[in-house]
Specification:
This protein has nine helices and no strands. By secondary structure, the protein is mainly α. It has a single domain, classed as Orthogonal Bundle (Tetracycline Repressor, domain 2). The N and C termini lie far apart (44 Å).
């Protein structure tokens, strides 16, 4: 089970009504705007409240400090990303492994490039926070979704699905993050996107050949 967030990072309360949800949405959007502008290192709860158009007291009703606000913003981002991946995996069940792979890469890449400045800002914002619990929860849900998807592939029966799944997810997610950390321009990123798909497809072909080879050996011994 993932470790719970420290009490200092836990929101004071969750919005229960539409008006409260709109207030929290405004606070999150204001935080994003400040994180993506010069001087983000000087972000304060006061500046966030002013940009969101709420009182500092209202902000503190939900978030006890700046760290709790940043933590909650990253949690929201990861939950939304997780849900996109889960939806893709459900939609791809029973398809070929190649189609599954392309859909997974496209979904993750598009999610990260919708607002690339936000992706970069969120990566930076958690540098001084312990977000282990968020990453563990994200990883567990994604692993469950991608494993279930690949297990239903119409053209491959993986001998070690857990190993293959871990390899693919690690390579895909790590490559995309590295692309943002390098600050690649659009053309470079597009080319890398294509190369990532090619590399993962080649891995699937290799895995398939190993499975077929092992099956052939077994058959020859009978």
């Amino acid at each position: 089970m993932p470790s719970p967030a420290r009490p200092s990072l836990t929101p004071r309360k969750q919005p229960r009504q539409a008006r409260a949800e709109a207030t929290v949405d405004a606070i999150f959007e204001a935080t994003i705007q400040l994180l993506t502008r010069p001087g983000a290192e000087n972000l304060t709860t006061t500046r966030v409240a002013e940009r969101a158009g709420v009182s500092i007291g209202t902000l503190y009703q939900y978030f006890p400090n700046k760290q709790a606000l940043i933590y909650a913003l990253n949690e929201r981002y990861l939950v939304a990303l997780t849900e996109k991946i889960e939806a893709t995996c459900r939609a791809q069940e029973g398809e070929s492994a190649k189609n599954m792979l392309k859909a997974l890469i496209d979904t993750y890449w598009q999610a990260k490039t919708e607002r690339p400045e936000v992706t970069r800002a969120l990566y930076r914002s958690v540098a001084d926070l312990d977000n282990t619990a968020l990453i563990e929860t994200f990883a567990q849900r994604v692993d469950a979704a991608t494993t279930a998807m690949f297990s239903s592939a119409s053209d491959v029966d993986f001998a070690n699905l857990a190993e293959v799944n871990l390899t693919l997810v690690t390579v895909i997610f790590g490559t995309v993050r590295n692309a943002f950390e390098r600050g690649l321009d659009t053309d470079e990123a597009d080319r890398l996107h294509g190369q990532l798909l090619l590399m993962c497809e080649a891995y699937l072909v290799c895995i398939g050949e190993r499975i077929n080879h092992a099956g052939g050996q077994s058959g020859g011994q009978d």
